Amino acid sequence: MSKMKETIGVSERDLKMLKDDIFDGIIEHCIPPELSKGHIDLSPSPPYSPPVLVNYNSQENTSTHQLRSPESSHVEVLAQLAETMPKRVRGSPITKIPLESKPRRGRGRPRLLNDIPYWLPSGWRVIKKVRQKGLSVGHIDKYFISPSGHKFRSKNEVMRYIDKMRLENRENGTTAEVKKIVTTLNEAEVPSHDVVEVVVSPPFVFILPVKDLLRPDFQVAAQNCWVRKGGAFTGEVSAEMLVNLSVPWVILGHSERRSLLNESNEFVGDKVAYALSQGLKVIACIGETLEQRESGSTMAVVAAQTKAIAEKVTNWTNVVLAYEPVWAIGTGKVATPAQAQEVHLELRKWLHDNVCAEVAASTRIIYGGSVNGANCKELAAKPDVDGFLVGGASLKPEFIDIIKSATVKKE
Ligand SMILES: O=C[C@H](O)COP(=O)(O)O
């Protein structure tokens, strides 16, 4: 019996299937049931040592077991297992026990419980939704969710997004890139300040050099500031500091801060009010996730976000609202001009009904989320789109075209 520890076998065919499945991104449940009984001693290999190693069922007991490993995902562990099995085991065939019986590619293939493909970077999640109505009722849709909450339908979409991010990040954030961007802006011919107000918002460390180099008709904004008076808040930058450096603008409540740093509506409302009280002008971001849009709660979400600001703000003169649907930020999936206009109009109505007619008429509501040189004109033409908050395209020469699109309504 002690020999069994070393003699659980896997056939070449099954091993190939195990490997194919791993490298196909769908991990099947292929772990010998004997594992549950401890007949294979996995402990000597570090990848097998106790967070998630793999979920599996034993033959006698259909409950799910989990082995845990601190340094490896279950996918990595399975890959390791596939690599090492031939050396470790000989003899009886591997036993496959389905954990889920959803057929794949016409074969009744079982799938691993967690169902997180090996190619998905850490920090990403997989969610599944069962269609509730229509001809495809019961069909399960799988979504891949990025750490910042962006939702994708397929591996190709995820890979395109990751490649885009990698490319953008290669130079992004270097002094050389910042100088290049400022030079492009400084040399550009753009409409005058009374037609379009251009505000450049570099990360904190680049604010001063950008401010020094930037043409005088363009202004700078910080990407965040602390919620109250400065003090012992290590790592935070206060509104007072920005004012002291003559930084006139600050962006607050960006979706990435809301989702990654758990900034609540109330917290953002407090920040907006405090920054305004110190003399800063504020670009306050609001926007719904794809899930919220699909569930029909877009207006409820953006109204709640705006309400939290409205409850703390008495003077809206220095507030710009930036509507940024989370699903459109950095994804290449821009809201259609009709979608943007619809939300902007509703927001304006909300301001009218809940603040006052004057604020509704005078507050600029700008759109953000995959704006680029190609789509800006059509968006800018919409009556309630008063400008843009541009991310990726602001780092490229096409940003000049976006600035120029401000003239569209005047044409
Ligand atoms: O901060 C910028 C906005 O979030 C939009 O980013 P994006 O234009 O790359 O989608």
From TrEMBL:
SUPFAM superfamilies: DNA-binding domain, Triosephosphate isomerase (TIM). GO terms for molecular function: DNA binding; triose-phosphate isomerase activity. It comes from the Eukaryota. The keyword Transcription regulation applies. Residues 110-183 form the MBD domain. Keywords: DNA-binding, Isomerase, Nucleus, Transcription, Transcription regulation. Pathway: Carbohydrate biosynthesis. InterPro entries: Aldolase_TIM, DNA-bd_dom_sf, Methyl_CpG_DNA-bd, TIM_sf, TrioseP_Isoase_bac/euk, Triosephosphate_isomerase, Triosephosphate_isomerase_AS. NCBIfam families: tim. Belongs to the triosephosphate isomerase family. This is MBD domain-containing protein. The lineage of its organism: Eukaryota, Viridiplantae, Streptophyta, Embryophyta, Tracheophyta.
